[in-house]
């Protein structure tokens, strides 16, 4: 009898283990946007059964995330193209300068002859950067710099030659050297699609840009986005049988502003477009759109619409996210879900000075969180998301602010303010464009807990702030932040852990964790 019971328990445990492991697998259908968070300017490739995608993160570092998926729906960040790409005052938040909304833009991702290539332009430096690696997930990357800014450039490798396609309205092509490291002297350099916007109208908020060039079955395809007056962002497709044209074009998709991107196939031969949509304070969110073919033209969507519910293109893979909770206890390096606001000062943060905590030490005197170094961020996500932190404050100095923010140009935060030797919990609302201290509650203990809840439902775009002295009982503080997407930052709101000084440097705080819900 005992033997039978033992066998039964083993079978039961195996069954429970199987149920536990299968429960993390993705559903067979998904809803667009497939990442409910800021992930704009997507470029995607397939290598074997794996898909890789890059996206714009501008002033955040490390920059140009490499995201990986096996099903085009569930993505995780496996690498970044660079830790820092430049080291001037704008990148370092020094001398009143910044690169909000600038930095690296609209990367192009390609794979050719065993090498992965990523190019992007920077509005901050006025240059274009091309990175290469043989291992996209581990690097190392080598970089080359072109001393001109090529707007929204797309790489093309074609019969041993390399090109960048770029520009606005008059879409141009310039040839690179065969190693993709420099402009080729005497190489091709010309407009290939003049007045590219014209197929969509005569008056535009944004003329055709965002080029993605791909060679498919011997044909050249250039995908663009424009924004006709009185309409929404619109996807365009041009094609030609030769490299320099002539190109003919048509409107590929005009649906709710879902536009801008290229197309990719699965190993089984199905095609999809990877586009995105402006979506209020959460940012620009990616949409997966089915593509069929008719007379060598890619046809986007179903009856001219981007479906909001679809079958997952490749089944049987687990759920993955581009954000995650963190206990700060795994290693001396940050998890790849994190990005710093601008270049970090690596001498003033540590995961090893106090193991199990993220220690932030002030290294400059700042006027606000906007010019503070070492603000550590993750994406907010929708329709609702909550960030919760625990932090210890015994190392703070007079004039220091530290806590948890809903971070954009019009930010809000709940945190600790040090005044002399006295501490208070404060809620700050900069929704008007100016930092306003809305509420203040004196407290004396070392450890404190903060929570920020972001509601993006139907672009409600409101953030709510809370504090707790024990991590269990929560009290609302201050008022509601009306979040708004600002062009100066050009990015969706982020959860941000910060510690900055307004009087003298050297104060520190210890963050125990960030929990995301």
From TrEMBL:
Keywords, in A-Z order: Glycosidase, Hydrolase, Signal
UniProt-listed GO biological process terms: carbohydrate metabolic process
Write one Pfam family the protein is assigned to: Glyco_hydro_43
**What are the residue boundaries of the Beta-xylosidase C-terminal Concanavalin A-like domain, all occurrences included?**
325-515
Q: Which family does it belong to?
A: Belongs to the glycosyl hydrolase 43 family.
Give the molecular function GO annotations.
hydrolase activity, hydrolyzing O-glycosyl compounds
Protein name per the record: Glycoside hydrolase
What is the top-level taxon of the source organism? Bacteria
Q: Which InterPro entries does the entry mention?
A: ConA-like_dom_sf, GH43_C2, Glyco_hydro_43, Glyco_hydro_beta-prop_sf, Glycosyl_Hydrlase_43
Signal peptide range in chain numbering: 1-26
- What is the organism field in this record? Paenibacillus kribbensis
